Amino acid sequence: MTRTRTPAAPPPGRRTVLAALAGVALGAAGCSGRTTPAAHPSRKATAGIGSPSPSPVLPRTTPWRPTSAEVQPAAKLRAVRLVEAIGAWADGHGGAAAARARVAALGLPTSLVGRAGPLLPTADQAALQVVDAQYGGILSRSASVLVVCRQWTRRAGTVSAGGTTVDVRLSRSGSGWTVDALHPAHPGPAARSLAPDVRSVLSDERIVLPPAAVADLRSGQVHTSVAKAMLALARTYRLEVSVVRSGHPLDVFGTSRPSDHPRGRAFDVWRIDGHAVVDPATSRGLIERFMRDAAAAGSYNVGGPVPLSGGGAGQFFSDATHHDHVHVGFRT
Q1: What is the pLDDT of residues 154-183, one digit of tens each?
Q2: Is residue 228 over pLDDT 50?
Q3: What's the whole-model pTM score?
Q4: Pick from 10, 13, 209, 315: most CB atoms within 10 A?
Q5: 137 pLDDT above the threshold of 70
């Protein structure tokens, strides 16, 4: 199986996406963006006076697919299909009642719609593209799948660009994986001023950030150690970030130990120089170099799919959860 994450039409550049998000205080879930009046095509001279203007067209999207290398592809697919079902709808099919019908068609509890938050804004139409689905944790009978997405909504003649990250909790039984809960990201409001290194990260073309991660950085709740490390790594690599602070489990999955992510002391990378970490075709050497360079950039806790020796005590680790991304954590 192959993993498909990008819209069929070329997606907007990162500066375009950030511009769409700029000027808005990305609030509780980082899912609302700057609203832009849609540009209508010019009418032909033969068009009748008073003819209705065409509705703006939302970006084309493609369903996300797991690769054959996933630890539990069925768990990821279950989580993603739920997010796609709630966060995208055709014209006239918005609202909670329609979303519950779409969720019921998946054989999942319709009560999940009540926890969807930013995935279900008031809009005439919505399109959603899953950027990545990574594990927040994976055990034999439970899992956390972090679904990172962009979303476009239309209200009358206005299109808004945004997106969020959703921590989807699942459990496994004899009949397969089911979804138990949704925890959308809560980045918080934008800060009035930002540290210079954080501003540099937000403008660096070699650091690709999804909407919730942008909102995290704009909130001022991410430590400068994270920003400095991103900038250092970006001198050598093009890094595509999946999660920074919000949308991640509060504790290391399956334990009572606080995670560094909610404290603004970690970030995850799902693609390096255009190569997905989970893809078996991606050079293990590339991933190893990236992990070692992350440690050299100040991380005390680097996890990924490649078990590494050396470093300080416990500096490198590898497990099933980090089969699909590289975790870079900091003490302060």
Answers
A1: 999 899 999 999 999 999 998 899 999 999
A2: yes
A3: 0.84
A4: 209
A5: yes
* Nearest partner of 322 among 134, 143, 149, judged by Cα: 134
260: region left, alpha or beta (phi > 0 left; psi from -120 to 50 alpha):
alpha
Instruction: Compute the radius of gyration of the chain from its Cα atoms.
Output: 20
Find residue 19's DSSP bridge partners.
Answer: none
Q: With b meaning 16 or more CB within 10 Å and e meaning fewer, what string describes 285-306?
A: eebbebbbbbbebebbbbbbbb
Strand partners, 168: 145, 182
